[in-house]
């Protein structure tokens, strides 16, 4: 049988255009040169011994014994809506937990809660700045609550495809911003 | 130039290369191979199929984890693209991380069919309806590239005990398989504070999966199963 290969016809066609006349170079920064060390002797299989999958402790011991560096993570991973909203949920949770704790503490400290409110009122700034401050203070509570419902939906198995995650994420952020401003205006 | 700082411990840094895109294929892997062929033969990275099915060339490109062979080079030549190995992994050399622990975690979920009686392979068919088989769609296609697990901040901080999205997706693949009879045992094996429950639904995993799979959803289904069955 004769086998013909179609070479050339389906090869990559270089479309000559203006770009070719320019020095169309691109810079690529690549994480660098770490000379590889000789692999440890335990990796060499003999015909009679069984290959044993190394356990967790052995893995981490080996890595530190070899002095291997760890690849960067927080410093290089692109911030995305998924991770940013997640960490905001954690941050606002901590913030509003601390505020709740502090607020409760103020109700039992000497003088009574109203004396501390009066004290704060003495230092109250002008209307504009006060509105901004109120919005900032109420945002953690509002955001965390709305995002909390998003989490509950996830716990029930709903809203997981990435389009839904992004849509619900932007809606949460927008709603939290709007409601924070609304509450700051009302109170 | 690639001068190696030979002091112990080895320090890592960045090397920058210029690539003429008119003489290069469209994907990041094409650029890496071109650099290796023409500029720096010591540049080290894993690669095999060059079509997004083997999972070898997973790395962090431009801030997110993907497969280099199906990641198009941004034609904007004014930007420098940064390429890093998969995040929070021990580096063997350049872009090559040590994947041993990842595969060990995969082995630990016993990713094979288990029935009540020993299976006499070839004797009879293990029947499954069309609906039952549909449940495996979106699970069996995982190529174990580790892009998802290494995009998860929770896996960064707890990779020793948290299994991570890739392994949990595969664990769910066996939990969801109607032919497997060991669902209860599989769930019991996962019943500790770390294996599953370090997932906080951050969802970086689903965002970054180069095959379009949804590990976040699979983990949520595992959590539901655990709440129901255990």
Task: Report what the structure shows.
- The complex is a heterodimer of chains A (187) and B (230).
- By secondary structure, chain A is mainly alpha-helical.
- Chain A has six helices and one strand; from the N terminus they run H-E-H-H-H-H-H.
- Chain A has helices at 18-21, 56-66, 81-108, 113-122, 127-155, 162-186, and one strand spanning 25-31.
- The N and C termini of chain A lie far apart (87 Å).
- Chain B starts with 13 loop residues before the first strand and ends with a helix.
- In chain B, the strands form two sheets. Chain B has a three-stranded antiparallel beta sheet, with no helix packed on it. A two-stranded antiparallel ribbon of chain B has the order 5-6.
- By secondary structure, chain B is of the alpha+beta class.
- Helices cover 30% and strands 11% of the residues of chain B.
- Chain B has helices at residues 28-38, 100-108, 130-134, 153-158, 165-175, 183-189, 204-208, 215-229, and strands spanning 14-20, 58-61, 64-67, 80-84, 91-93, 96-97.
- In chain B, strand 5 (91-93) and strand 6 (96-97) form a beta hairpin.
- In chain B, helix 5 packs across helix 8.
- Strand 1 of chain A pairs antiparallel with strand 1 (14-20) of chain B.
Question: Could you give a quick summary of the protein structure above?
Answer:
The complex is a heterodimer of chains A (187) and B (230). Chain A is mainly alpha-helical and 187 residues long.
Note the main attributes of this structure:
heterodimer; A: 187 residues; mainly alpha; extended; disordered N terminus; B: 230 residues; three-stranded antiparallel sheet; two-stranded antiparallel sheet; 6 strands; elongated
Q: Roughly how many Å is the radius of gyration of chain B? A: 20 Å
Q: Largest chain interface and its two residue counts?
A: A-B, 50 and 74 residues
Q: Which blocks of ≥5 consecutive residues of chain A have pLDDT under 50?
A: 1-24, 37-49
Order of helices and strands of chain A: HEHHHHH
- Coarse structural class of chain A: mainly alpha
Q: How many helices of chain A?
A: 6
Uncertain regions spanning at least 5 consecutive residues of chain B: 1-10
Strand order of the largest sheet of chain B: 3-2-4
| Biggest pleated-sheet summary of chain A | none
N- and C-termini, Cα separation of chain B: 58 Å
> Which class best fits the helix and strand makeup of chain B?
alpha+beta
């Amino acid at each position: 049988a004769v086998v013909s290969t179609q070479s050339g016809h389906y090869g990559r066609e270089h479309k000559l255009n203006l770009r070719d006349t320019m020095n169309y170079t691109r810079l690529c920064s690549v994480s660098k040169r770490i000379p590889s060390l000789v692999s440890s002797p335990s990796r060499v299989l003999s015909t009679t011994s069984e290959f044993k999958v190394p356990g967790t402790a052995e893995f981490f011991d080996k890595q530190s014994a070899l002095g291997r560096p760890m690849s960067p993570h927080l410093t290089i991973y692109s911030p995305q809506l998924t991770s940013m909203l997640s960490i905001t949920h954690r941050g606002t949770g901590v913030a509003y937990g601390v505020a709740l704790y502090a607020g409760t503490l103020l109700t039992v400290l000497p003088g009574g809660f109203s004396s501390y409110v009066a004290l704060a009122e003495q230092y109250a700034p002008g209307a504009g700045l006060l509105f901004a401050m109120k919005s900032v203070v109420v945002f953690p509570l509002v955001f965390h609550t709305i995002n909390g419902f998003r989490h509950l939906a996830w716990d029930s198995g709903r809203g997981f495809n990435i389009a839904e995650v992004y849509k619900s994420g932007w809606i949460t952020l927008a709603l939290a911003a709007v409601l924070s401003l609304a509450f700051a205006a009302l109170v | 130039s690639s001068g190696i700082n030979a002091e112990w411990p080895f320090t890592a840094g960045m090397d920058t290369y210029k690539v003429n895109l008119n003489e290069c294929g469209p994907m990041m892997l094409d650029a890496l191979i071109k650099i290796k062929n023409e500029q720096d033969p010591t540049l080290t990275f894993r690669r095999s199929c060059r079509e997004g099915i083997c999972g070898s060339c997973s790395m962090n490109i431009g801030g997110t984890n993907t497969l280099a062979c199906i990641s198009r080079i941004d034609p904007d030549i004014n930007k420098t693209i940064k390429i890093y190995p998969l995040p929070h992994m021990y580096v063997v050399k350049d872009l090559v991380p040590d994947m041993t622990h990842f595969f060990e975690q995969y082995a630990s979920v016993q990713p094979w069919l288990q029935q009540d009686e020993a299976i006499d392979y070839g004797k009879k068919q293990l029947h499954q309806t069309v609906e039952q088989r549909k449940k495996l769609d979106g699970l069996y296609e995982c190529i174990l590239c580790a892009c998802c697990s290494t995009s998860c901040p929770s896996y960064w901080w707890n990779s020793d005990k948290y299994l991570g999205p890739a392994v949990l997706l595969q664990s769910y693949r066996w939990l969801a398989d109607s032919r497997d009879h060991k669902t209860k045992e599989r769930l019991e094996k996962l019943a500790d504070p770390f294996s599953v429950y370090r997932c906080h639904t951050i969802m970086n995993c689903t965002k970054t999966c180069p095959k379009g799979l949804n590990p976040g959803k699979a983990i949520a289904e595992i959590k539901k199963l655990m709440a129901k069955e255990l």
